[in-house]
Amino acid sequence: MNRIRCDRTPAWGQLQAAFEATGRTFDVRSAFAADPERFEAFSQCAPHVFADLSKNRIDAATEALLLALAQQTGLADHRDAMFAGDAINTTEERAVMHWLLRTPPLDPAMPAQSVHRHMAETLNEVHTTLDAMLAFAEQVRADDGITDIVNIGIGGSDLGPQMAVLALDAFVLPGKHFHFVSNVDGHELNAVLKKLKPESTLFLVASKTFTTIETMTNAQSAKSWFESHGGTDIARHFAALTTNVAAANAFGISTTFGFWDWVGGRYSVWSAIGLPLAIAIGAQGFKEFLAGAHAMDEHFRTTPLARNLPVRLGLLDVWYRNFHGFTSRSVAPYHSALKRYPAYLQQLEMESNGKRVDAAGAALPYGTAPVIWGEPGTNGQHAYFQMLHQGTDVAPVEFVAVKTPRHDLHGHHALLLANALAQAQALMLGKADAGGHKHFTGNRPSTFLLLDELSPTSLGALIALQEHRVFVSGSVWGINSFDQWGVELGKVLAKDIEARLASGDVTGLDGSTVGLLALLT
Ligand code: F6P
Could you confirm whether 382 is annotated as catalytic? Predict the structure, then answer.
């Protein structure tokens, strides 16, 4: 596989020239006026997701150059290397195979099946593990004695399952209550424990490494609480979801569901880390979630780049970040159940692509991950949309809306959809007739993602779409999207400071930390 960094391709210079010639002054309103087919040209169906890209600052010539950039950087080879199981996470020497977790079992009658045959054994292991996890999920669902499921985990061991359980609230088994404890701040665990009884609680300790200090601390406190409140059967009330089964056993948990080092934390909701979701929506629902994601994998793997939605979105991200200089993207889900979707995307994009060196370790002369932020619409409208419409910075907005709601409250859904469309329209059209404080410049870009309904299948497809679009921009930027060394330094320093909080020793510390420690000790 030959990856070429984006700034070393001919297309990069051509994009710079195109940006200066027409990109900088590109006006989406004029583009619509000049091309009655613009909506058709810049919108498309992908599995379970319809995407309208037509309100973006892009035309056919720019998209052609971006596709040339993708080709010249070796995007297709890089993608194929991921699907071949190559160790594309080079700094950790690991394959990147979260997609295998949603690959159906091999059918001997279909030799041309997507998964490479040399992975047949690993795929069998995936399905054996999945079957065991789903059987456990069904057992918990059928067990009326268990009413509360507490997931203890952080980062990818929290955000994925939490986001998905909330998003699929309409599918959650009545009588089961889900709690997510991630923060080491004791207030969080304490607030959850106050509501629980040991005999009706199942704790899921979710940690890929089973070493993360926040999770270990919360798990230890949960275990102490359980035992001190009369709980006896750890095997029934605690399960661990981890690649480090030995550490979970040493901790005292014998019920374990494993996964593999080729599943990155932020890509792990499809693995045993998804157990809370499987309990919530059942084995069949979880399989539909995997199937939706698999359909998107196949779209990404096989569709020509020009009609490949993750590719188009990822290239647009590069266009905005490196040529227009936009430093953030606002995510606006017009569905209240998607309340943790922005937080989930923050980790996915910013932990994957928040890198300042290329895959070879050389410093980059261009920007990478944008800041991802947002809140469910319409709440965001009454908070920060002011800035999106009239601020000095432009932040592209990515709307998500759902055609059919899962409630029958009269009038609400039409109003919600009207707001989503109106906001996208207002960002683009602006308003020039009032002047002064009431002037809206318009030409503010947005993308509109539309799902028929929010279901396990469509959520799976939406999340896989986002994973692959992050792959695309990271690939073009020439970085390793699958490591996260940037989180390590703080962890080391926290250990040192924790000891100093106890001892009061400030030797060798910087003046600010000395001052703050003096106030705290
Ligand atoms: O500190 C970052 C990180 O490693 C994330 O990448 C990961 O999702 C999270 O911590 C939790 O890690 P673990 O699942 O090993 O507890």
Answer: yes
Ligand 1 binding pocket includes 293 (Cβ within 6 Å): no
Rounded to whole angstroms, the Cα distance separating 345 from 189 reads 24
What are the backbone angles phi and psi of residue 131, rounded to the nearest 5°?
-60, -40
Atom of ligand 1 nearest to the CA of 153: 16
- Peptide bond preceding 378 in cis form (omega within 30 of 0): yes
The response to whether residue 209 sits with its C-beta less than 6 Å from ligand 1 reads yes
Q: What does the alpha-carbon distance between residue 121 and residue 441 come to, in Å, rounded to a whole number?
A: 57
User: Considering only CA atoms, which residue is closest to atom 1 of ligand 1?
Assistant: 487
Q: Which atom of ligand 1 is nearest to the CA of 206?
A: 14
Tokens encoding 118:
């040399």
The one catalytic residue in 349, 351, 375, 467 is 351
Spacing, Cα 207 to ligand 1 middle (Å)? 7
491 among known catalytic residues: yes
Kindly give the distance from the C-alpha atom of residue 61 to the centroid of ligand 1, in angstroms, as a whole number: 41
Assessment of whether the complete model's pTM goes beyond 0.90: yes
pLDDT tens string for the chain (521 positions)?
A: 789 999 999 999 999 999 999 999 999 999 999 999 999 999 999 999 999 999 999 999 999 999 999 999 999 999 999 999 999 999 999 999 999 999 999 887 776 565 677 799 999 999 999 999 999 999 999 999 999 999 999 999 999 999 999 999 999 999 999 999 999 999 999 999 999 999 999 999 999 999 999 999 999 999 999 999 999 999 999 999 999 999 999 999 999 999 999 999 999 999 999 999 999 999 999 999 999 999 999 999 999 999 999 999 999 999 999 999 999 999 999 999 999 999 999 999 999 999 999 999 999 999 999 999 999 989 999 999 999 999 999 999 999 999 999 999 999 999 999 999 999 999 999 999 888 999 999 999 999 999 999 999 999 999 999 999 999 999 999 999 999 999 999 999 999 999 999 999 999 999 999 999 999 99
The yes-or-no answer on residue 351 being catalytic is yes
The answer to whether residues 103 and 117 touch, using CB atoms and an 8 Å cutoff, is no
By C-alpha distance, which of 23, 457, 491, 506 is closest to 215? 491
Compute, in angstroms, the gap from residue 266 CA to the centroid of ligand 1: 8
Give the pair of three-digit tokens for residue 142: 């059928």
